Amino acid sequence: MTMADKIVVLQGGIIAQAGSPLELYHHPDNIFVAGFIGSPKMNFVPARIRDAGPSGVEVELSGGGTLTVPVGGDGARPGEAVTLGIRPEHLRPAGDGVLHGEVIVVERLGGDTYLYLQHGGEDMLVVQADGENPTRVHERIAVALDPGHCHLFASDGRALPRLRRHPLADLTRVDRKAS
Q: Can you list the domains of the chain with their CATH numbers?
């Protein structure tokens, strides 16, 4: 991934996705590519659809938290099982977090600390925290996430399409006073 301009990810001899390394990392077409690209890999959390609207798909996470992920919900049905995907660097320990778990491993790497949480799912949740993070093994913590960095995968593994943002949405207006 560090030396390629284009990557082709194969799954069982069939092309799962082709594109630049960053395209595959940030916009995986399916759950296989999302879990294959990146180290540590993307976290996967079971979820259920509560509602779908113009701002995205509202899901209920295992453990009871809810959030609206900015993806298209065409054909999404309330109660349908989906998988929420989120990369470790897009999670942060926070008292108001929607995910909760017990820290099983703390891996201190200098500038970064990886927290491995048992959160009720089969896989551990990996959180990339600041190197100075004081969390210890066996602590129970809450983890916050930004829905804008989340992915939703249907039961067949395909990624639900991200909603398009207006190209000027991130520009801010600057007011200047007359001199």
A: 1-38 (no CATH), 39-153 (2.40.50.140)
Mean residue pLDDT across the chain: 88
- Strand-pairing partners, residue 78, are none
pTM, 2 dp: 0.85
Beta-carbon contacts of 106 under 8 Å, excluding residues fewer than 6 positions away, are 113, 114, 115, 116, 135, 136, 137
pLDDT tens figures, 82-107:
999 999 999 999 888 889 999 999 99
Rounded Cα distance between 92 and 143, Å, is 5
* CA atoms of 123 and 45, how far apart (whole Å): 8
- Token digits of residue 138: 């066996």
Phi-psi region of 38 (alpha: psi -120 to 50; beta: other; left: phi over 0): left
- Check if the beta carbon of residue 19 is closer than 8 Å to that of residue 6: yes
